[in-house]
Amino acid sequence: MWTREELKIGGKQAFYKNYWMSVAVGLLLLLISSEDFWEIRKVLDSQDDSVISSGWGIFTVIGIFLVLFYLLFTLLIIFAKIFIGNVFAIGGYRFFILNRTENPSGKNLLYGFKSGHYGNIVLTMFLKNLYISLWTLLLVIPGIIKRYEYCMIPYILAENPGMDRRDAFQISRRMMMGQKWEVFVLDLSFIGWHILTALSFGLVGIFFAGPYYQATFAELYIVNKRRAYEEGYIR
Questions:
Q1: Which of 56, 59, 75, 208 could serve as a FRET partner for 95 with CA atoms 20 to 30 Å apart?
Q2: Would you say the pTM of this structure is higher than 0.85?
Q3: From start to end of the chain, where are the E strands?
Q4: pLDDT score, position 98
Q5: What count of Cα atoms within 13 Å lies in the side-chain half-sphere of residue 156?
Q6: How many Å apart are CA 95 and CA 101, to the nearest integer?
């Protein structure tokens, strides 16, 4: 069984040896994080409220136009995230996996587009985020559990982009069986860095905390993959 200290030490070592490229890729992963969907919804809600309270009213031509504009803008962002952002993310996860043993370049960000399995990546990532969102809307705690249950899927796709989505979900569930709480605590151990990121207007997150976090979770994936080979449910 892994420990937080071991994962963080390995992640920090991998991050430092390819520092600037890790910073760049970590920033991209931060920008296209799956949590952005909820931020978009909040922006849309606030814009709708401002339109209503501005005196135009939603039943005037201008009010209707503004609401439609924000709806279209939001749909375009969601579309871009599903069909472009998630695929770039897979390349980012692949970068951090490879960064443990070599010095990969930023070309890995295009891996999902060039792998020949673009459609499978898009569908699998879409379903992963959809399931987590639905569980979160229904019941918050099960949504959090599903988030950790499926957290290995992007790493699995980063190495096996053509894997059937059912297999990817099953393997991630097996990998996370019995350690979701430990990974939750691992997440919590970065809370100090999140506070420093907020206090530094994002600079700590960009130049240290973000890539450090990604490198640490790449270490977690490698440990889980080794255990999966040992237990025989992947070959």
A1: 75
A2: yes
A3: none
A4: 98
A5: 29
A6: 11
From 152, 118, 144, 161, select the one nearest 223 (Cα to Cα): 152
Residues with pLDDT less than 70, the chain = 34-59, 63
d(C-alpha 100, C-alpha 15), whole Å:
8
Work out the burial of residue 111: count CB atoms within 10 Å of its CB; fewer than 13 is exposed, 13-18 middle, 19 or more buried: buried
The pLDDT tens digits of the residues spanning 18-41 come to 999 999 999 999 888 745 444 545
Which two tokens mark 174?
């097996």
Backbone angles phi, psi at 55, to 5 degrees: 105, -15
Q: What CA–CA distance (Å, rounded) separates 71 from 51? A: 13
**Structure confidence by residue, pLDDT tens digits, 158-177:** 999 999 999 999 999 999 99
8-state DSSP, 83: I
Q: Distance between CA 1 and CA 3 in Å, rounded?
A: 7
Over its C-alpha atoms, the chain yields an Rg (Å, rounded) of 19
Tell how far CA 158 is from the center of its chain.
Answer: 12
pLDDT reported for residue 59: 54
Rounded to an integer, what distance in angstroms lies between the CA atom of residue 222 and that of residue 224?
5
Residue 170: per-residue pLDDT = 97
pLDDT at position 54 is 52
- How far apart are alpha carbons 123 and 31 in whole angstroms? 20
C-alpha angle with apex 161: 235 to 124, nearest 5 degrees? 110
